[in-house]
Amino acid sequence: MFRTALILSCLAAPAHTQTLGDVHLPLVPRTEAEAARIAAVTALTDDFSKAEAFEEKPAGAATVRAWTNADAFSQLSANMPFAHEMDFKLGNALFRKSWVASPSSTLGSDGLGPLYNARACQDCHLKDGRGHTPEGPEDRAVSMFLRLSVPAASSAEEIEGWIATANEPTYGGQLQDFAAPGHSAEGQMEITYTDVPVELADGTVVTLRDPSYSVSDPGFGPLHPDAMLSPRVAPQMIGLGLLEAISVADILAKVDADDADEDGISGRVAIVPSAAFGVPVLGRFGYKGGTGTVMDQSAAAFSGDMGLSTPLHPDPWGDCTKAQADCIAAPHGQEPENREGLEVDTLSLDLVTFYSRNLGVPERRDVSDPTVLRGKEVFYSLNCTSCHTPKYVTHRLTDQPEQSFQLIWPYTDLLLHDMGEGLADNRPEGRATGTEWKTPPLWGIGLTQQVSGHNQFLHDGRARNLLEAILWHGGEAKGARDGVVSLDTSDRDALIAFLESL
Ligand code: HEC
Ligand code: HEC
C-alpha cells in the first residue's frame, strides 16, 4: 500500500497529456473475453419480479453487514486481508486525530492552520457519514464550507475545456471560519432560505427551501466583487476505493457530450491534474469531480481544510494567500528532524488514504420486498439510471485485494451533468460549469438518518428528505423529476422505499 514514494517519482511526466488512463491503478489489463462477460453482467435488467443476483451486496465481497447503529459506515472492507487491518486502524486514528496550532508541546499533532475549517477529518465526515447545514445562528458551519474563486482571463492549466478561474485574491480557495490564537478567522458562512412550494400530481404540496449564501464578518476586508461562492457539505466516506477502481473506459463509454442519443441527458467527463500522479486524470471525487484520486482529495483536505502540509502540498500555511502575510509567517509544525520536515508525512498520508479507500458499503435491506422491487422498476422507467448507473465490475488490481474485480452497485456514472438553474452554484470548477454537478453515488443513502442523524441531501444539504432531493433535479434531469411529480402516491412511495433500501 505504501505507494507515495513511487508516485512522486512520476511528477516529472508532462502535465498536459490528454490521454486519460487508469494511471492511478496497479491494474491487470482486461482480456476481450473478460470485457464481454463484464458487459453482460452490468447490463441493465428488465426483470423486476425478483432481486438480481448479488444485488444485496453493493460492494461485492467488500460489502459489510448493515449495522443498525450509527457505526454502519465505519466498518472496514469485509474482504480485507488480516495483514492490512492494522493500517486501517492507524489510518482511522489519523482521520480522527484532533490537530493543534503551533507552537505546541505536542509536536506530533501540531501545525493546524493558522486558518482552518476543522481540527480533524472526522469533525466534518462525522461517523464517516455526511455533514449537515448549521442548525441555527449559533451553530458554526463545521461540517460544511464555502469554496471561493473569481473569474480569470486565462489559466495555466492545459486541460482541454478548462474554464479559467482563480482563487479569491485575498481569501484563497475556500473560506476558513476558524483561526489559530492571534489570527482572525476569514468570516462566517451565512445562509438564508426561501420557501418554494411544489405541487405534485396527487395534490401533495412539498415545500422546498431555496438557499442563498453570503459571508459575514469578513476578517480581511470585503470579498472581491466578482467572488463566486460554492457551498459544500462533507459527503459520506463509504466505498471510495471502489469508485476509484472503476475503469476509465467504462466511464468514458457513458459520455454523450452532444446528446447523440437525444434522451436529453449528455454527461461530460471531469479531467483534473493529479498532484499524486503528475498527469491529468479523470475527476471522480468532490461534487464537481475536482479531484481524481482518494490520495489527491485527502492531501487537498489536509491543506485546505486544516492548513497541514503533506508531500503533495508542502506549504505549511495551507490556503493562506500573500495578502494574509501574518498567516504565512506564523509558526508551523514542520520540524526538519522528523516527519520529513512535513506536518503530515508520507506514511501518514498513505495511511489516511488507505483508510479513506476502505470504508465498507453496508449490504442492502429488503432487496426482495415487492414495494422495493416496484420502486426499482419506477427508478429504471423514469431513466434515473441514465445518470445513476447501477453497476460496474472494478479493475483487477495487483496490490489492492479489497477493490479488485468486484461487482459493485454505486448508482453513479461519475460524470458531470447540467442540473439546471435551481441547483447551480454559478461557480465553474475545472471543466465543470456553474450549473454542472457530478452524479453522486446512491449506495448507503437509506442509512443517512441512522448514521448522520438527519436526512439532508444534495451538495449543500438543502433537501430535507429524498423526495425534496429529487424535486430539485432540473436541467438534464428535468424529465426524470417531472416523471416523479406525475407519479401516483403508491409508485412515489415505492420509489422512496427503493432508495431507502440502498
Ligand atoms: C471542513 C470540513 C472537512 C474536513 C475537515 C475534511 N473534509 Fe473531506 N470533504 C469535505 C467536503 C465539503 C468534501 C467535498 C469537496 C468538494 O466537493 O470539492 C469532501 C470530500 C472528501 C473526499 C471525497 C469524497 C467524495 O465522494 O467525493 C474524501 C476522500 C475526503 N473528503 C477525505 C478527507 C480527509 C482524509 C480529511 C482529513 C485529512 C478530510 N476529508 C477533511 C469536507 C471536509
Ligand atoms: C441528468 C442526470 C441525473 C438524473 C437523470 C437523475 N439524477 Fe439524481 N442526481 C444527479 C446529480 C448530478 C445529483 C447531485 C446534485 C447536487 O448535489 O446538487 C443527484 C442527486 C440525487 C440524490 C441525492 C444524493 C445525495 O447524496 O445527496 C438523489 C436521492 C437522487 N439524485 C435520486 C434520483 C432519482 C430518484 C432520479 C430519477 C427520478 C434521479 N436522481 C435522476 C444526477 C441525476
Automatic annotation (TrEMBL):
<dbReference type="GO" id="GO:0009055">
    <property type="term" value="F:electron transfer activity"/>
</dbReference>
<keyword id="KW-0349">Heme</keyword>
<dbReference type="InterPro" id="IPR036909">
    <property type="entry name" value="Cyt_c-like_dom_sf"/>
</dbReference>
<dbReference type="GO" id="GO:0046872">
    <property type="term" value="F:metal ion binding"/>
</dbReference>
<dbReference type="GO" id="GO:0004130">
    <property type="term" value="F:cytochrome-c peroxidase activity"/>
</dbReference>
<feature type="domain" description="Cytochrome c">
    <location>
        <begin position="86"/>
        <end position="198"/>
    </location>
</feature>
<keyword id="KW-0408">Iron</keyword>
<dbReference type="InterPro" id="IPR051395">
    <property type="entry name" value="Cytochrome_c_Peroxidase/MauG"/>
</dbReference>
<dbReference type="InterPro" id="IPR009056">
    <property type="entry name" value="Cyt_c-like_dom"/>
</dbReference>
<protein>
    <submittedName>
        <fullName>C-type cytochrome</fullName>
    </submittedName>
</protein>
<dbReference type="InterPro" id="IPR010538">
    <property type="entry name" value="DHOR"/>
</dbReference>
<keyword id="KW-0614">Plasmid</keyword>
<feature type="domain" description="Cytochrome c">
    <location>
        <begin position="370"/>
        <end position="502"/>
    </location>
</feature>
<dbReference type="Pfam" id="PF06537">
    <property type="entry name" value="DHOR"/>
</dbReference>
<keyword id="KW-0479">Metal-binding</keyword>
<dbReference type="GO" id="GO:0020037">
    <property type="term" value="F:heme binding"/>
</dbReference>
